[in-house]
């Protein structure tokens, strides 16, 4: 492959396809952390839902059954995490890391037990969620720019891609223009004031964790039954941590968090494009260095923005009701 094959249009399309994994996880983390619970367990929930979605979709040959099963598993983990962090007042960081470590190992072991393919599920084939062709795409295919814009950048994606992008304004409205969002933010900023106003802080935080579990499951389902068509050990490759970084980048606000997800999706697309490309004056960059790109960007973003970001004031602090 040469530099002439390096197309910016392909990078934009790949960005749109890469971003949903981060968008779903980041929006899930927003609900949890706005309520005051640190959700570092996003990575584990992504892995658990990805494996469950792939396994059930393969067994039933129905991708929607896989999505539903992934939701159930992710919600169960979110409930367990909520029980440790909210009811038992446990260390939220330890609870999240425990879920990540447990799911990294458990998904591999269960996949190996059922499928004997080295911790991998079989290819899903027709059990995948395929791309949606928008009406009129064939008619405008030959029109310069318009055909590409309508048929490939806007159209030609899975239903979950459109759900991810449509989720952003919905989350913004829920957080800032609904009673549920107002109470949720109050629990994350000043839980004692919320409790004095008659709001059940524990109930609100549990509801936030359940919403986070549902949204995070879509991230895993997208990885397994849209992008890859199978489950592979640790296939999330740090997507949960990148989603947390996007939240810091976005200062725990949905729209800015979404922009952070697009940024990481863009660098992920660039990584794929330049792998194997002979760059002028540089030559071919080793694949191991290219794979570092999203994570180097993560370190730079955290180093530059961590001091400027203002987290919810009660984030990570267990709520103990005043007597």
Automatic annotation (TrEMBL):
InterPro entries: ABC_transp_permease. It is found in: Cell membrane. CDD domains: TM_PBP1_transp_TpRbsC_like. GO terms for molecular function: transmembrane transporter activity. GO terms for cellular component: plasma membrane. The chain crosses the membrane at residues 6-30, 42-59, 65-86, 93-115, 154-175, 206-225, 256-274, 289-307. It comes from the Bacteria. Keywords: Cell membrane, Membrane, Sugar transport, Transmembrane, Transmembrane helix, Transport. It is a multi-pass membrane protein. PANTHER family: GUANOSINE ABC TRANSPORTER PERMEASE PROTEIN NUPQ, SUGAR ABC TRANSPORTER INTEGRAL MEMBRANE PROTEIN-RELATED. This is Simple sugar transport system permease protein.
């Amino acid at each position: 492959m040469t530099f002439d094959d390096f197309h910016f249009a392909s990078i934009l399309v790949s960005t749109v396809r890469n971003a949903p994994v981060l968008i779903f996880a980041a929006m899930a983390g927003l609900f949890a952390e706005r309520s005051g619970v640190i959700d570092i367990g996003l990575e584990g929930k992504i892995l658990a839902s990805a494996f469950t979605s792939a396994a059930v979709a393969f067994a039933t040959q129905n991708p929607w059954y896989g999505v539903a099963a992934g939701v159930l598993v992710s919600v169960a983990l979110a409930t367990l995490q909520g029980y440790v962090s909210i009811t038992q007042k446990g260390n939220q960081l330890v609870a999240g890391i425990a879920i990540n470590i447990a799911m990294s190992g458990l998904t591999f072991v269960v996949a190996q037990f059922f499928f004997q393919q080295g911790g991998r599920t079989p290819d899903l084939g027709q059990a995948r969620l395929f791309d949606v062709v928008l009406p009129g795409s064939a008619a405008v295919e030959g029109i310069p720019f318009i055909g590409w814009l309508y048929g490939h950048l806007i159209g030609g994606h899975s239903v979950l891609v459109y759900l991810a992008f449509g989720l952003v304004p919905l989350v913004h409205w829920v957080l800032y223009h609904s009673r549920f969002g107002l109470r949720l933010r109050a629990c994350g900023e000043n839980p004692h004031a919320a409790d004095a106003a008659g709001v059940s802080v524990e109930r609100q935080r549990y509801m936030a964790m359940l919403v986070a579990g549902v949204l995070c499951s879509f991230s895993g389902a997208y990885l397994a039954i849209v992008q890859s068509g199978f489950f592979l050990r640790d296939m999330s490759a740090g997507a949960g941590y990148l989603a947390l970084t996007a939240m810091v980048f976005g200062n725990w606000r949905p729209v800015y968090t979404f922009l952070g997800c697009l940024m990481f999706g863009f660098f992920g697309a660039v990584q794929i494009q330049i792998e194997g490309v002979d760059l002028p004056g540089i030559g071919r960059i080793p694949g191991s260095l290219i794979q570092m790109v999203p994570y180097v960007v993560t370190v730079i973003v955290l180093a530059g923005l961590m001091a400027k970001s203002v987290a919810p004031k009660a984030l990570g602090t267990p709520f103990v009701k005043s007597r």
